[in-house]
């Protein structure tokens, strides 16, 4: 067996450095994660004070709110990418990076 077929972990990056690199590529991913975590934590906090609302209805509302935060962040990210790639170079004569 040759030595160039062996797997080595030297070239791998840590999960934190990968998250930092990915957040530089698409800056709205951390915004979506933060929105999701905020809605989930708020939902868990208000779980105690839901009064006469059924548990399933409360969980459905929290799921929809959390998904709304993530979809909103993805939409903003797509719009930002479109602006950066198409609109800004055309009107402001900026070169792509």
Automatic annotation (TrEMBL):
Question: Pfam families attached here?
Answer: HIG_1_N
List cellular component terms (GO). mitochondrial membrane
Annotated localization? Mitochondrion membrane
Q: Does the keyword Transmembrane apply?
A: yes
Q: Where are the transmembrane segments?
A: 28-47, 59-83
What superkingdom heads the lineage? Eukaryota
Instruction: Tell me yes or no: is Transmembrane helix among this UniProt entry's keywords.
Output: yes
Boundaries of every HIG1 domain copy: 1-92
The family database entries (Gene3D superfamilies) matched by this protein are listed as: 6.10.140.1320
Q: Which UniProt keywords apply?
A: Membrane, Transmembrane, Transmembrane helix
**Where is it chiefly localized?**
mitochondrion
Instruction: List, in alphabetical order, the GO biological process terms annotated in this UniProt record.
Output: mitochondrial respirasome assembly; response to hypoxia
Protein name listed in UniProt: HIG1 hypoxia inducible domain family member 1C
Species name? Panthera leo (Lion)
């Amino acid at each position: 067996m040759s030595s160039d077929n062996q797997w080595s972990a030297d070239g791998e990056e840590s999960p934190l450095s990968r998250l930092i690199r990915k957040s530089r590529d698409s800056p709205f991913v951390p915004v979506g994660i933060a929105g999701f975590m905020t809605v989930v934590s708020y939902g868990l906090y208000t779980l105690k004070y839901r009064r006469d609302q059924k548990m399933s209805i409360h969980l459905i509302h929290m799921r929809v709110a959390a998904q709304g935060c993530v979809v909103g962040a993805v939409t903003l990210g797509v719009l930002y990418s479109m602006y950066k790639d198409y609109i800004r170079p055309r009107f402001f004569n900026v070169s792509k990076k």
